Amino acid sequence: MAARTESVNPKKWLNAFLGVVGVTAVLTAILRLQSRRQSLPCPAWLTVLLENPYMNSVAGADKILDRMALEPGMKVLDVGCGPGRLTIPAARRVGPTGTVTALDIQPEMLHRLQDRIVTQGLTNIQTIQAGAGEGKMPVNTFDRAMLVTVLGEIPDRQKALTEIFAALKPNGVLSITEALPDPHYQSPTQLQKLTQAAGFKEQSCTGSWVAFTMNFVKPGGQAS
Ligand SMILES: C[S@@+](CC[C@H](N)C(=O)[O-])C[C@H]1O[C@@H](n2cnc3c(N)ncnc32)[C@H](O)[C@@H]1O
After folding, report:
1. Which of 110, 112, 119, 221 is surrounded by the most beta carbons within 10 Å?
2. CA–centroid distance, residue 70 to ligand 1 (Å)
3. Are 132 and 158 a contacting pair, CB within 8 Å?
4. How far is ligand 1, taken at its centre, from the CA of residue 20, in Å?
5. pLDDT tens-digit series, residues 36-51
6. Which residue, judged by its Cα, is nearest atom 8 of ligand 1?
7. Which pTM does this prediction carry?
8. Among 91, 135, 114, which residue's Cα sits nearest to residue 44?
9. Where are the domains of the chain?
10. For 223, left (φ over 0), alpha (ψ -120 to 50), or beta?
11. Mean pLDDT value across residues 186-199
């Protein structure tokens, strides 16, 4: 029997594409409204929204780590690490003389990260299960801290930023990345207000309104 070939129907594909875009837009709008009433952590089953070609192009790990000038030997704090999209590349970049401390409020996220740590044989990552602002971060320890699409999920942002400030060494840098269509997206103006109140000084802003990274320094030491 001859094989039947099906012709590609462009209209069908266009409708499917528009359907996916529409569903994403509606879901984002619902989550955005919900997040204004209550800050909720991104559920583990939604990590597909973090690890995909779109996020890699606008807020990929290498780009974010370059922007914070992460170097071998540094100590890094990854706040709201999720399943480790940034944690694993950061651990590779700081190498055996550096460390990454990965903190997340959800055990499920840390289980996923732990699987990756074991599979990839990394020995320079430690995890902390806690909410940012709960006082579980070591003080005066880190050269870099990062918050990548996390801040808007934290109920008490000011408390969390004050704790991160204390966790950094003098001249340490906090790097915050925000990307649309994250329903918890924070604008540069919101970030400026919150970080300033915690004691940080703005250092740089890179990217566009779609996805940007702002770096903030903890003043107090000799310039390096
Ligand atoms: C959108 S995900 C981002 C994960 C990762 N930073 C990335 O870019 O792939 C947000 C993460 O922040 C965590 N999170 C939310 N609220 C938190 C809090 N109060 N303290 C610590 N982590 C929190 C969530 O559990 C989730 O893993």
Report:
1. 110
2. 20
3. no
4. 25
5. 666 677 777 777 788 8
6. 148
7. 0.86
8. 114
9. 50-217
10. beta
11. 98
Q: Which CATH class is domain 50-217?
A: alpha beta
Q: Over 50: is that where the pLDDT of 190 sits? A: yes
Instruction: Give 127-183 pLDDT, tens digit per residue.
Output: 999 999 999 999 999 999 999 999 999 999 999 999 999 999 999 999 999 999 999
CB 102 within 8 A of CB 128: yes
Taking the C-alpha atoms of residue 175 and residue 197, their distance in angstroms, rounded to an integer, is 16
**pLDDT tens profile 72-90:** 999 999 999 999 999 999 9
Does the pLDDT at position 33 exceed 80?
A: no
Distance CA 158, CA 194 (A): 6
> Which residues are near ligand 1 (CB < 6 Å)?
41-42, 50, 80-82, 85-86, 103-106, 109, 131-132, 148-150, 153-154
Atom of ligand 1 nearest to the CA of 147: 6
Residue identifier of the C-alpha nearest atom 12 of ligand 1: 80
Instruction: Give, for ligand 1, the residue of 65, 137, 150 to mutate: max count of ligand atoms closer than 8 Å to Cβ.
Output: 150
> How far does the centroid of ligand 1 lie from the alpha carbon of residue 205, in Å?
21
